Amino acid sequence: MSKSILISPAVRDKDLVKEIVELIEEGMGVPETEIFCSSLDGYGIPNGQNFVTYIKGQLLSPKVVVLVLTPAYFESKFCIAANKPFNCH
Predict the structure, then answer these.
(1) Contacts of 34 (CB under 8 A, 6+ apart)
(2) Which of 31, 43, 66, 72 is 20 to 30 Å apart from 11, CA to CA?
């Protein structure tokens, strides 16, 4: 079951993402239990869960997706691999 908010950052943007999560929690009143962010401890994949299966579950139906598109994201192996079929790089 997916959470209400999915945040998709590069791991290198951890400090920026902490600020975004804080803004969502404190500024919008969204509880921690409704936020998924694989880059932050406590917001990502629980210990013992299968990475691929858990991520797929989170992608099913979040109400909001926050893409953190920074230079670090575009330089990440994940982004490069995801866009390889489109020959974007």
Answers:
(1) 3, 4, 5
(2) 31
Which DSSP state fits 6? E
DSSP-derived secondary structure letter, 2: -
Sequence-separated (6 or more) residues with CB below 8 Å from residue 8: 37, 65, 66, 67, 68
Q: Read off the pLDDT of residues 30-60 as tens digits, 9 standing for 90 and up.
A: 999 999 998 899 998 889 999 888 888 888 8
Token code pair at residue 87: 């020959």
Beta bridge partners of 66: 7
The amino acid occupying position 73 is Y
**Quick one: which of 88, 75, 63 has its CA closest to 9?**
75
